[in-house]
Amino acid sequence: MAGTIIYLHGFLSVGNSEKARTLRAAFPHQTHLAPDLTFDPDENLKIISELLATVPKGPVIFVGTSLGGFWAHYFAQTTANPCVIVNPCIHPSHTFKDRCGDYPNYVTGEKVSVTPQALARYRDLERDLEAIYDPKRVHLLLAQDDDVLPYAPALTVFEGCSTLVVTESGGHRFTTEWQRAIDVLKRLCAHLC
Which structural domain range is residue 177 located in? Predict the structure, then answer.
């Protein structure tokens, strides 16, 4: 099998996370890319766009968790590729509206800034995304016990998506259920790659 898997991590994480390493192990024949993202939307647009310019010919599948789910969904829609998104942050402009300030990255300790300017830019991107939404590109996994992002709004936003898996457990990080995401990705790779 050939193709590229691009993993986009959540807020305050890094590209070389445990989930990214698990994906590399589960899909040894695919090219794997997992950039370190910021909170700044324009910086993330640049990082991911430049990364896409390096992708070998063949299918591309975006995988994203939490805020990375927003980015995986955004790039899947704007590049006409599929995405596997897990407990995605649907509207960062709303989710982070009361969280402006500086936060340490969980892994590196580097400062991550949430600013009103970034939230305004996310609002624009959210509107763009709503205008081009194609449900067939989305493979969605949600945990009912997500303690960070309520799962129910995603059921409406992503209505008609190609795959919907809702688990009772897994929490926001989906750690105990991550194999389900790998299984969805395996089916997708078998079809595309």
Answer: 4-192
